[in-house]
Records
---
Amino acid sequence: MRQIWTIAIREFRAFFDSLIAYILIMVFLGLSGFFTWLFGADVFLTGQASMQPFFAIAYWTMFFFIPALTMKMLAEENNTGTMELLLTKDISDMQVILGKFLSVMFLVMVALVFSLPYYFTIAWLGPVDHGAVLCGYLGILLMSASYAGIGLFTSSITKNQIVAFLLALLIGVFFLIIFGALASNMPGALGKIFSYLDVSSHYQSIARGVIDSRDILYFVSIAALGIFLAQTVLAKRNITK
Amino acid sequence: MDISVENLTKTYGPQNAVDNVSFKVNTGEILGFLGPNGAGKTTTMKIITCYMAPSQGTVKVGEYSISENADEIKRRIGYLPEHNPLYLDMPVIEYLDFVARLQSVPKGDIAQRIKKMVQLCGLDLEKHKLIGELSKGYRQRVGLAQALIHDPEILILDEPTTGLDPNQIVEIRNLIKEIGSEKTVILSTHILPEVEATCDRMMIINKGKIVADGAPSTLRKQAQGSEVLKVTIEDGVPENIYNKLQELHTTKSVDIDAKRSNHFIVASNAEVSSKRSIFQLCVQNNWVITEMIAVEKSMEDVFRNLTLN
């Protein structure tokens, strides 16, 4: 457990040392602020004391944000050879992956903390459903965890960060758009499967304040699958071809 | 801690990178690992350090085996991989702290260990710099420092002096010798004199198999075979000298050096020396020996003989 923490802290620090953290947080907050207050279905247009506009834009920004964070995590280690250095220390493959996963979640939390002023402002402007807001943040965290799992997997299979980033986006697009499109075009059982695989329904239900175990299971499963697959890829070095 | 490599094999597709290799390294020994590129040195080291599993065979470190107690083994090994991979974006001290934590150095001891490593490896002036800002020699020292920080009983160093300037090489070698006195060390290198300077024992690997194993002086003697002398004899007729030299019962063959007419290369029969017989010959004929040098087979020759086939 301590090892996971050591890795997580190092990665977290590296985000800030490399300015990645600052840039992404600024972009995230910039876009969030713009679409929550100034443009589209913003708070002033809808006239509702709700954080929904914020959660709606976060749905899209996280899709880009997370792969940008995870792209270097394993790909760079593969590329520079530090993976060998890391894995010959007293640490397991899984601990390395979990440590990196945790660092991404920490950074997401930091970004979300900076959005709290939106919440306080809206609460001051009108009667806000606090439970729904809490759920909305939970939804973002769960969705981020899923994207992080996918991102770590794509980072593990390549030495090239751009490839890792694009593959994560590609896989993300399936969950974000393609499964939804397939679901609406297919009747019966197949349609239902695709409908379950589509992110939007799960995210929206949590964002509205409904915590359903099926939705939580959905996000957690994807995250776990990504992490497990990343570990499998790392274990390939032991196989005799 | 002893290291015992038993019937180690690692196969990549049709090739055996490591082919049924077995050897033992005793506590306190410094073993030099030599071989052409692609011979299997790095693969063997990666298996011993538990980075990857072998296709067959096993390695035992002390009483621990790589298949069952990998974590125990990893704790006791300090490893400097080929190309010395480092996190270039981290400051030296922060990096050493990170490694110390990973290697389970007790929290209270970390600061002290870092200080000691910085001192030992001569990093005092560079310790606040980012690793990416350091020159190759200093990066190599950081690599060594991270391998030593948890005071491991075993050191595995893959080409530790590559790319260093002659001064740095001497320093690193002395460092390794100093540290190696209480630890078990395996180091791989292409630099043959380095093996003689630093190692108690040397092993040559070629195409995944061990082709030589012994103390550098022993190996050189084995490869040497018979004695070879370079002599310059003056005050005589070269053909005459040549014939007389060949007639000596201790000599096996004589060559004339084409560039210098009085210079001969005399190979003796096995187990005998021609030094005295040549001297006697010259005395008898009133020739003057102006030069007599024993040709020692260089380590390069030993290496080439064993690896070019």
---
Amino acid sequence: MEQEVVRLYRENAAGLFRYGFVLAKNREAAQDGVQEAFLRYFVARSGGQPVERPKAWLFQVVRNLLLDALKASSRRKEVGLEAVRRWADARPDPESEYRSAEMSRRLWGLLSPRELECFRLRAEGLRYGEIAEVLGLRSGTVGALLARAQKKIREDREALMRPRLFAERELPHAP
Amino acid sequence: MHPDPGTLAAYRDRELGEPEAREVARHLETCRRCAQEAERVSAEWELSLAADAQFRSQCVPPEDGLERVLSLIQEWKRSAAAEGAEAQPSNLDELRRRIGAELELYFGAETAALLEKVAFSRRPAESLIAAVEPLLTAFLGRKAAGAVMRQILEGGDQRLCLAPETA
């Protein structure tokens, strides 16, 4: 059973972690969620529970765990989920002060939560059926969400590139 | 019918069912505008992945992540083993089974079933015993009832330890 967990961890941990990071906007919370999901997988399998699509199962458990944690922390602070998201935006955790956070923050502002999750899950290699399972959608809507997400990203890239190209021309040459 | 962007994305990802995929393919052969749109949808996805590449390469889980998972599993196994050793003899179902067997022996199956219903409606093990003991005492006398209760709690393969259930 441990062998199965090790194999699944090697295949999916990075993608699960990125998905968790996008949901929780925090490295520690993402890592906690991922670890807990693998522990739960082990416990479920040890109890003889069959898991048909382990990959989708793990993503779904990470999602449930992190959304529960977000809800719990929003209750503790007696503010809404949206406020927690803004709070997380305003105060990125110190470890994530790298450019990945910059890029993901950009996407957080750009995409709706569902588009963001859908894009992340597809980028991590999940099939439409699996994405639908994780997010509780009909798989027919996955294509539409992805199309909207990628359109927004493309438009944003274009807007981003234009001033940068201009600025680069203004830069002095490196010695 | 011109396929919408969502359908084109699903077509690109080979996520359409067989008849629908064939329909889209046939349409793209004849409709130049949709063929261009399909190309744009594919290029857009490549661009989105490229924009995401930096995030992918920089947002990585800690190196000791797997070790941490495995140690969580070991911890869980230890506590499950410890719990199992305590929980098994305290099993309420086993207590019920034993009480049921004794009641049936003394009162017959039908009366036992009736008495069980009354007694088992009380959930915690302690109140279950509290309900059954006077019942047995009334029928068997104090001494015999005490012996039967001891038999229920201590007989069989394992001694029933009730502390965790009643807590």
